[in-house]
Amino acid sequence: MPKNNSLIKASAGSRRSTQKEKTRMLILDSARNLFNKSGFDKTSTRAIAKDAGVGIGTVFSHFPNKQSLLIAALLDDLSSTLKKATETLSDDVTVCDKLIHIAGYFYSYYAKKPDLSRTYLKEMWFVKGEWGGELFAQAHQFLSLLNKIFEEAIQTNEIRPEADTMLCARAFFSHYLNVLFEGLSEKEFDQGKMTDVLQSLVNQLVEGIGPHKNTQGANT
Predict the structure, then answer these.
(1) pTM of this prediction?
(2) Cα→Cα distances 11→2, 7, 19, 137, Å
(3) How far apart are the first and last CA of the chain?
């Protein structure tokens, strides 16, 4: 009997956990849609609760404030986008192609929701506490992927073996963000144009850390 009771309790706990996650996702979907439709400033927590079909207390049991809702929605979207980008990443392409492939998925995401994306970027900087830590972890995950790509480029002799791969990753990330901000500063985010700009920057970056060219013939 005690064993059966333990199984029943475990099953009930699992159902509660599943329901809690479903409610969380329902709230985030409503928040994401309303932020995109009405704007962050004009969307109230009460409106999000009403749209999700839950009480406002339920919203606050998952998220302490409206900014945390915004950051949580962004983190979920970025995590999903990164997963799609890595799952479709080919090993049989150049380091430049890999980097542009990854960036392309994120630029496509931002291009679909330019107004919401501007709000995301405006609110995400210098966030402290738990959500600041979550954003830092997400950025670290992205940098780790970029670092791995540059490490693989050393193995394929595309860049010099002495290159600091994490510095390379940070350099690419800086270019990526710079182009993203440039694109979102315009009325419409032109993904093709921004990708071309990033492509030029990436080509220059990789050329600078590529294998030394043999100039002996030119000097004789």
Answers:
(1) 0.83
(2) 14, 6, 12, 32
(3) 91
**Structure tokens that stand for 85 in this block:** 């980008």
d(CA 96, CA 207): 10
pLDDT of residue 16: 63
- The pLDDT of residue 214 is 63
Alpha-carbon span 67 to 48, nearest angstrom: 13
pLDDT in tens, 174-189: 999 999 999 999 988 9
Among the four given CATH numbers 1.10.260.40, 2.40.50.140, 3.50.50.60, 1.10.357.10, the one describing domain 65-211: 1.10.357.10
In one-letter notation, the amino acid at residue 180 is L
47, two tokens = 């409106």
- Write a three-state SS string for 161-174: CCCCHHHHHHHHHH
Among the listed ranges 54-63, 128-137, 154-163, 193-202, which one has the minimum average pLDDT value?
128-137
DSSP secondary structure, 72-121, as one string = HHHHHHHHHHHHHHHHT--SSS-HHHHHHHHHHHHHHHHHHSHHHHHHHH
Over residues 106-119, the pLDDT tens digits come to 999 999 989 889 98
Exposure string for 72-103, b = 16+ CB within 10 A, e = fewer: bbbbebbeebbeebeeeeeeeeebbebbbbbb
Fold of 1-63: Arc Repressor Mutant, subunit A (1.10.10)
Which strand (E) or helix (H) includes residue 24? helix 2-38
